[in-house]
Structures are given as C-alpha cells and as structure tokens.
Amino acid sequence: MNLLNQFATSTQHQFYLSFPARIIFLSDIFLVDHAWTTKPETSRAQLLDNPQLVERLCSMMDISVEAEEEVVDEEGEGSGPLGGEVESKNPDLEVDSAMVELVASQGNVSESRAKTALQNENGDVIAALMSLTLHSDHDAEGLRKLEDAIGGQIKQDKEAKAAEKKKQETVDRIMSEMWKYSQTYEYAVVDPSGQTKKESAWYIMDEVGSAMAHSETPNCVCAPFIYVGRGTVSYSIIYAIEDIPKGGALTRDFVPADITDPEMRKAYLAIYNDGEDAAELIAVYESDKIEDNRITLFDQPFTKTLARSQSSATELNRKLRLYTTTEWVATNCKLPNVELVDSEDQADLLWFSQDFKEFDKLRNGQRINQFVNESCVTFKHNLAALVKASYGTVPWSSTTYNLSTELAPFVGHYLWNQEHEHRNLWICKPWNMARGLQITIQEELAPLVRLRDTGPKIVQEYIQTPVLYEGRKFDLRYIVLLKATHKVEGDPSQGYEFQLMVYKMFWIRLANHPFELSDFDNYEKHFTVMNYGSFNLTQLLYTKFIENFEKEYADKKWTSIQADINEAIKSIFSAAVVKPQPLGLGAQDGKAPEYEAFSIYGIDVMLKDDCQPVVVEVNFSPDCTRACKYDPDFLNNILTVVDPRAGNIDKALQAFEVL
C-alpha cells in the first residue's frame, strides 16, 4: 500500500477506480508482489542459475521433487578381470565420452582402446580398467585397491549426473506449468537507433496472487501496476468487484478481455480444465476441415507476353527517371538509361522501402513498386487466409491458424492430434515480423495459447521431416516479380494484365547445427536466418547447392523440384490477383487505377522429406544487397523487365523464369 499512498499524496488527488455501480477507493486496493519476471527465451537459463527460485516455484506449482536414489552399477560393484581383449565384441554400444577419458587416464591407454574395453564390459568402468591393467594372477587385494582408488570417483560422477538430470527434469516441469500462472504486460524501450519499440515481460505473482482461481463470475480484478520513480518496480493490484465473505476465496477471470466468443473462451481455458471441453473443440476442428474440401478452384490469369515498350516516341528519347528511398536500389542502379531524381513528381518509376499510402496522388503513366493491399500476401495470417479460401488444404502450405480468430479450431486440432497419437509440434510466429523475430517451437498447448497474449500470432505445423543438406536444415529464398499493366494502354476500365516471374538465382540459408527433433531452444539447429545476429553465416552459391544436392539425393532432379516450387509460387499469386480486396489484390469495383504497379517479394521455401515444397512466407520489400553482390545485373534486370526503356529486355528476361 505504500506506493499507492505515495502516488495519491504526490498528486494531491483522491485515488479511486470507477467500476459499474461501484466506487473502488484506495483502501480497497491491495498490492501483490511478483515472484518472477522473465522472458520465454531466457526463462530456462534463469531457472538453472537460481535454485532458490526453483524451490519457491515448485512449492507454488505443487511440483514434487523426489529424493534422489543412490546410484549403483547395474551389475553391482564391479566384476572380476576378464583379460586384455583389444577387439571390440560390442562395437555398436554407445559409451559416455567422460568415462572413456577416465578409463584411458587411469589405465594409461589410448582412448580408442579404452572405448573398446568399455564396450566389451557393457560400460562397466571398473571391469574395463581391470581388463586393461590386471592379469589373472593378481590377487583379490589388488582388485580391492583398484576399486577403492576409482570407485569413489565413479560414484561421485554418477551422483553428479543424476543430480543434474533431476535438476533439468524439475526445470522442465516448471517450464511446462509456468504458463498456467504467468501474466504479461508490454513496455516501451528505445533501441540504439533511437526508435521506440514494444517488448513483453512475463511474470508470476507471489503465493497470494498465484493462488487465485478462475471464475466465469469473478469477485476480483487483478492487473499489473508499474511504479516508476527512482527505479521501476512492478506489482499487481487486486480489488474486489463483489462482496467477499470472510474466509471466501478470491477469484478472477483468466481469459483476456478481447476474447468474447464462447468457443474461443473454451479453447483458451483448455489449458486449465484438463480436457473438459475437448470433444466440443475437436468437433470445431473437424467441421473446419470439412469446409476446406468445398473450395471451388479458379483459372490462373497470368500472361507470358511482355511488351517491349508502352511509352511514346517522345518518352523514348529521354532516360527513365527513378525516385527511390531504398538504399540498395540507389546504390546498385548502374544502367545508363536510368536517371535518379530527387522528386516523386519528376519520376516515371517510384521505388519505396516503406509502405506507400498516397496512391490517389499518382499520375497516369507512373509506375510504383507496391500494390494496394499487398499485405494480403506479406502478412502471415492474411496469406494463410488467402490460401485457405482459395484452395483449402494444400501440400505446398503448412496448416496455419490465426490465434486471434482461429483459437478454437487450433486447440481442437491439437487435441485431435493427441487423441490420434500424432506428435504435436508447432511453430509460433508474429504475423507481421520478419528476420526470425519472436519465433518459437512448442510441443505443449499452454505456451501456444498464452503467447497470443503478447500480440497477434499465428501457429503452423512444424515440418518434422525436412529434406536436409549435409545433415542440416535449410530453406531457399526466391525473388519473385509481379508486374501489372493495363490490357489497353490508357484505359483503366480494361483492368490489369499480370505477369509473374521468378529470378533463377536463389539463396540457400543453412542452419549451423545438425538437425534432429529435440532441443528446440537451439536456434542454430532449427532456424536458418543467420545474417541478423552474431551467428556464423554459410555462403553457398545456388549452382553449387544444386550440384551437391543431386549428389546427396541421386534419385532427385532439381529441375523437377524447381518446377514444383514455381507452381506453388504461381498458385499463391494466382489467388491474390483474382480475389478482390481485402482477401486479395483485385480492385473492389473491377476497375484498375490509372497508374501501373509492380512489386518484388522474398519467398521462403522449405522442402519436406519427399521434396514437396512448402511456401513458408512472403516478405515485403526484401533487402537484396547480397543478391546484388552475387549478381551485379540483379537490379538492372528487374528495372528493365519493369520498364523496357531501362535496358535490353531480351537480355534481362534470361535471368527470370516467366510463369
């Protein structure tokens, strides 16, 4: 209460909160401490480094930590010497590297021979040492001395390993249970460039706050309270909204205020109620699947005819004027027929790196590198909605749910997987961020449901069997150009003619560590975007990749895989140009604007183990600095295809696959 009293005194106003039919005065408000404030990506490390916190959280979450049993050898305390065999009788047996080092050191032999001895003795260290150091004529006293010399060390090692395993298991339990207790709030930080951005903190209230139960008709409200004075301190405040009898339990509504739909409320509460509404939520998912099978397909509207010029003779006698706010475009524009200008009004071609809003100010004949409503493909939740509405379930797109609107079918899908013994493994992403920001892989339902509380998120089925390159996970970045021109020049009523093409050069992004379905916190094992952090970045030309890939997978031809990738990309943009806004790019009234448009997108593709391509996402205004280093004509080719006045279009088209 001290902080609230100080606040009320310093502002010289009576502090109260208004609630329907009730006034909440200062004396009715209670402060609750926060036992732990964390972030999901750092919480495990914090727990491993803080045994007192682990002990407190175990008590709060009713997690029992069983006493450790004494660790003994499976076959007792050693066995007699078996001689000095050097040939392994059990070469497939895995032995601990630390034990190999110990036997090699104590037995004064090479690690190879020590490993062989351990394999011959089924991992028994004492027996392995005896086979290396004792002969059949050694007496029992010699054996006892050997056991005394190393037995204590081995026991200590095993006890330490058992303690470490128990510690890890306890932390795993806390990491699993914490989502049922955690709350979250956002705060603003200023990054080194001076930009303000929002970050999220997760916190667990103390024993009093964490003991509050959920109720559909709660008697209390609980909310975070951040005090900023000489320092910053976070608390929660609790105040009653109903009369509470003496000894009565305090309750609050666990469900965020933005969730009002009854099915979504049940889906959110599924992590607390042990499957109480599982059958109903599974039915929601199954109904959703039935709707996917009722999709009517459409014709793909692209044309492969690219006009050599749509400009008048007068315009052909001067340079193409380009205005850009995109640094890599300004730096790499080398065509003699292109002139950089300082004013949008002067420009024939406008290329922006930021969202452009003033389309109504564009004049006839100008071209711009953006489409109205292209967020229909560049925002992850919109792309998923477009694909689902146009095709239903398709092999080239991962099953995706928008947690803001599709929480119920997602939870139903998760529970259906459980019921049918399918492994649940999902990747959770913000729908409007790139560069791998705030992406996590989760197996449990609770964090997937709760992560929606920190902002708009999607979840996608994680690709559990990706094609690997030399044992590592990879994805491919393609640059795709979508161009729209009027069917009849100067007559917007005729609508657009669309061309779609993929740049033949693509980029390979490799994980740094070998892939396996474990250790999902290991970024370098499960993710491939390495050029925005302090990670090692593997540089690999696409031609070398194709050569190596076909050697590793001798029964696969890249031309066939590439054709499937192109078809998947074509399917996305076919839907986009056909569907009207807001689902797609099509004009609402069927009338095209007077200006012309193009855009380049960064398309990320992965391959499943059968080489089935999966389009992971479509990125707006990709940074192509690296592309220009690999191919000095990269930008020139794009500019020429967009407006043939820039250069030799026949030469430029050789760099593209026109779809």
TrEMBL record:
GO terms for molecular function: ligase activity. The lineage of its organism: Eukaryota, Fungi, Fungi incertae sedis, Mucoromycota, Mortierellomycotina. It comes from the Eukaryota. InterPro entries: SET_dom_sf, SET_TTL12, TTL/TTLL_fam, TTLL12. Signal peptide: none annotated. The keyword Oxidoreductase does not apply. Residues 28-69, 164-269 form the Tubulin--tyrosine ligase-like protein 12 SET-like domain. Pfam families: SET_TTL, TTL. Coiled coil: none annotated. One of its GO terms (cellular component) is cytoplasm. Keywords: Ligase. This is Tubulin--tyrosine ligase-like protein 12. It comes from Dissophora globulifera.
